[in-house]
Amino acid sequence: MLQDSYGRRFYYLRLSVTDICNFRCNYCLPDGIGCGRSLEGENPLSVAEVDTVVRAFASLGTEKVRLTGGEPSLRRDLDSLIAAVHDCDGIRRVAITTNGYRLPSQIDGWHAAGLDQLNVSVDSLDPAQFQRITGHDRLEKALAGIDRALELGIQTKVNAVLLRQHNLAGFDQFLDWVRQMPVTLRFIELMRTGDNREFFASNHVSGTDIESRLVQDGWQQVVRARDAGPAREYYHPDYAGRVGLITPYSSDFCASCNRLRMSAQGKLHLCLFADAGFDLRREIAAGDAEALAGHIRELIGGKSAGHELRRGLTGATRNLAMLGG
Ligand code: SAM
């Protein structure tokens, strides 16, 4: 079992399959960096390479893999990537994080390939606001895709980054929505990155303030599974859905870290805000999962106790599309 020098165990791998994104979210890639570059030029990990990576991690105790990006649905071979992860011995859950751009036409294929869990980023339920934040008039498509995922029985979560100037006024609309919708809606605290410093200063909202309000309104905390992500989730008897909070600025956030990240080019990142990744592409391409697992085990000793976000240090992370948030 993979364990670091602080006794943390790693059940969860976030695997980026491209760092290219077609959205221009104002807090992440406002200038669309990555838009217009070709996926071929990027040379992301192939299906065979993803298979090697996932076998290596599974041999070290990883149980859940999330495919992310950039925007993973831009990969034409995404069904095969999902199937490669699904078919790997030891992996119990395959998840994906997407902006939902073509979700209604793609979700059936992902389901057939073995997808267990879907996360869709929906930063506003108001179509005009959604367009202002993301640069795309696609809210309806994302919502239709979520409806279809629920029909297929896929566990579905919705991510919304809390933005003081852009969607905080829509907070009650989000809560009303989960009265009937059996999804988990997670509010993510905006994180400061190398690229969004000014935006962060005017838009960051503390998730713990929101959490206090939920508790006052009768929401109760759900016990966290060992392969769960960083969200603290709440349920309420009057609501079909749940609400989660991801608060990377809270002081104990890193103590329960159970996840590692790999970039689309095969760099292992021990933390989202690490100074650098370890380039494992040559070993991955060689296809020897056992050797790769041995190297990952050596590297894990270097994982630090926590990120330095509260001191304003963001490591090498210019934006979260580089590594899948
Ligand atoms: N393209 C996919 C999507 O839109 O969900 C996956 C990649 S995206 C980088 C993953 C998640 O990171 C999204 O939910 C996004 O809202 C979130 N994210 C991006 N930048 C962020 C930031 N600076 N602070 C907090 N969350 C951020």
Could you explain how this protein is built, in words?
With 325 residues, the protein is an alpha/beta fold. The chain has eleven helices and twelve strands. It has helices spanning 39-42, 47-59, 78-86, 103-113, 127-134, 139-151, 171-180, 197-203, 207-216, 281-286, 289-299; strands spanning 12-16, 64-68, 93-98, 117-121, 155-162, 184-189, 220-221, 232-235, 242-246, 259-262, 267-269, 278-279. A twelve-stranded mixed sheet has the order 7-8-9-6-5-4-3-2-1-10-11-12. β10 (259-262) and β11 form a beta hairpin. α2 (47-59) packs parallel to α3 and α4 runs parallel beside α6. The longest helix is centred in the first third of the chain and has 13 residues, at 47-59. The protein is globular. It starts with 11 loop residues before the first strand and ends in a 26-residue tail after the last helix. It binds S-adenosylmethionine (SAM). S-adenosylmethionine binds next to β3 and β5. The site of S-adenosylmethionine has 21 residues, from β3 and β5.
Helix content: 25-40%
The main pleated sheet reads as: 12 strands, mixed
Strand arrangement across the biggest beta sheet: 7-8-9-6-5-4-3-2-1-10-11-12
Intertermini distance: 25 Å
Strand content: 15-25%
The helix/strand order is: EHHEHEHEHHEHEHHEEEEEEHH
Rg, alpha carbons: 19 Å
* Spatial shape: globular
Counting helices, strands and paired strands, the structural category is: alpha/beta
Work out the number of β strands: 12
The low-confidence runs, each spanning 5 or more residues with pLDDT under 50, are: none
Note the total helix count.
Answer: 11
Bound molecules: S-adenosylmethionine
Mean pLDDT, to the nearest integer, reads: 92
